[in-house]
Amino acid sequence: MFRTGFMNADVAWRRVALVSGLVLMIAVLPYLQTARYGFIGIDDDDYIAQNAMVNSGLTAPNTARAWTSVGYAANWHPLTWMSLMTDVSLFGVRPGAMHLHNAMLHGLNAVAFFLLMLLWARDVHHEERAGPAICFSAAAAAVLWSGHPLRVEAVAWITERKELLAVFWCLATLLLQTHGLRRGSFQGWIYVMSIVAYLLAVSAKPVAVSLPAVMLANEWWRTGRIRWWRWLPFAALAASCSALTLLAQREAMAPTEMVGAQARLVNAVQAVGDR
CA gyration radius for the chain? Predict the structure, then answer.
């Protein structure tokens, strides 16, 4: 019995590894053609082509500036700056290599999405092993997500490296939380690593500030209660990133471009209606 159980587990892991490779390939292949693409006129000049900090590569002074300069190019996303500077240090200012970097990040995101869907599906069906049906459904969800037209902008536009990085670390945070909750111990090193992953997510793109709401829902679904003390570090990081982003955007916008909360609310309702 022990040997049979071990072999079944081994087969399940090999199945997951094989499907992960297929999901990665399906996600990346359509974007290999972007290696022939160049920069575009929307933000790529400010972020890369004419950006002195990025063009000088990944150095200690540039890294310090990326983390401490609020409002540089109207944003605070130091991890994104470091990623672009790493590209320059490795390949020079070559848009093709940067496009391929985006494509690979997209592939990794698809695999992370697959693994998260796999864990959630196993819990819904109360199964410990990744059977063929669960593996197929999780893979189908990952392929649909990665191939959706909404992903094109983030992958084919170098400037949107920030979204790819934020998604990767958001998924990593959810995977760590889910793993911890499934073991009944979302604490210790898993908890600390989830905080670090979330810090990297918000330092890539401010949109990640909404992730704690998803994590709260995940905990409530699994345990039926919320341990509020766990969420203080996440709330502090979300609030800090929001404040830095508001400051960065305020410095970049002219007074005539500033609008009040009422106008923003009306615009949000109209945008939802237009969809």
Answer: 21
